[in-house]
From TrEMBL:
InterPro entries, A to Z: CRAL-TRIO_dom (IPR001251), CRAL-TRIO_dom_sf (IPR036865), CRAL/TRIO_N_dom_sf (IPR036273)
Pfam (any one): CRAL_TRIO
Native source species: Anopheles culicifacies
Domain CRAL-TRIO: 82-247
Gene Ontology MF terms: phosphatidylinositol bisphosphate binding
Official protein name in the record: CRAL-TRIO domain-containing protein
GO cellular component: membrane
PROSITE patterns reported in the protein's UniProt record: CRAL_TRIO
CDD domains per record: SEC14
């Protein structure tokens, strides 16, 4: 099944202490709005995110599919070949990082340049959600996930690009429907006007998520961050780490997006079996992507 995830299910179940019997229990009775074709790998991510609580898992599954149905601007037309997503991939950096010593997944994002005219908010969120899905595709259920943002190229004019309706949907999905346990949101190179950003997003954030928000200035001593959250061995060289540069890691992930293209198209068909999903040609993709 092309809409299935790519990780090893047996290894993930053993690592996270998940039960195949619990996976079966999630299927009966059927959950309204959840595709009958949902796979055990997909279910395993939700079960782990909900600490193996069947009732809570069923609730989150409903929210997940409702959020995707009610937010087509963020969850539909997710072909990596599409011009809109290509525009995001050319102007912003997205990629998962290696899992931390604690087993957490890490998803990184930053703007590649400071031109606000290149920033299209809804498409940027869509591509970010795809990056989270790409991380889950390969890494599967984990003890938690960390979001790592770099604000180096963010300016005040970017605030004019924000869509409040999409901000609401963004946080609803992350807080109530994400098939992963959010452990922390780290913001690097935090800008002086972050209070203005917080003013915009605070009405949509639960108190527990605010408590997971960590802000880091450009001149901050990061030793405690390396020790407690992400070691240098798991960070890009631009952030003081031992990995490749942000640009190189992004280019590597473009290749991963290309490999996962059948999954993204099939996952959307799984949710929207009657939708007319237009697939961009590979030739068009290769002309617009810079893949080494």
């Amino acid at each position: 099944m092309e809409h299935d995830l790519g990780f090893d299910l047996t290894e993930a179940l053993e690592r996270e202490g998940l039960s195949r019997e619990d996976l079966k229990a999630l299927r009966h009775p059927p959950i309204e709005g959840v595709p009958a074709t949902i796979t055990d790998k997909q279910l395993a991510c939700f079960l782990d995110a909900c600490d193996k609580n069947i009732d809570e898992t069923r609730k989150v599954l409903r929210i997940y599919y409702e959020a995707r149905k009610n937010g087509p601007e963020l969850f539909n037309n997710r072909d990596p070949h599409s011009p809109a997503i290509q525009q995001c991939l050319q102007n912003q950096d997205y990629f998962p990082l290696p899992t931390t010593p604690s087993g957490y997944s890490v998803v990184f994002h930053r703007l590649k340049n400071s031109r606000s005219s290149n920033y299209h908010f809804d498409e940027a969120i869509k591509t970010y959600f795809m990056t989270i899905d790409s991380c889950l595709y390969n890494q599967g259920p984990r003890p938690g996930i960390i979001f790592l943002f770099d604000m180096k190229n963010v300016g005040l004019m970017h605030l004019t690009r924000i869509n409040i309706s999409s901000v609401r949907k963004f946080f609803h999905y992350l807080q109530d429907g994400l098939p992963a346990k959010l452990k922390a949101i780290h913001v690097m190179n935090v800008v002086s006007f972050f209070d203005k950003i917080l003013y915009i997003i605070k009405p949509f954030i639960h108190a527990e998520i605010l408590n997971m928000l960590y802000l880091h200035t450009s001149n901050e001593n990061m030793e405690s961050f390396y020790e407690e959250w992400i070691p240098k061995s798991g960070l890009p060289s631009d952030l003081g780490g031992d990995l490749k540069s942000i640009d190189e890691l992004h280019q590597d992930h473009l290749k991963e997006f290309e490999k996962q293209r059948p999954y993204f198209l099939a996952e959307e068909r799984q949710r929207n079996p009657d939708a007319n999903i237009i697939e961009e040609s590979t030739d068009r993709m290769m002309k617009s992507l810079s893949i080494d």
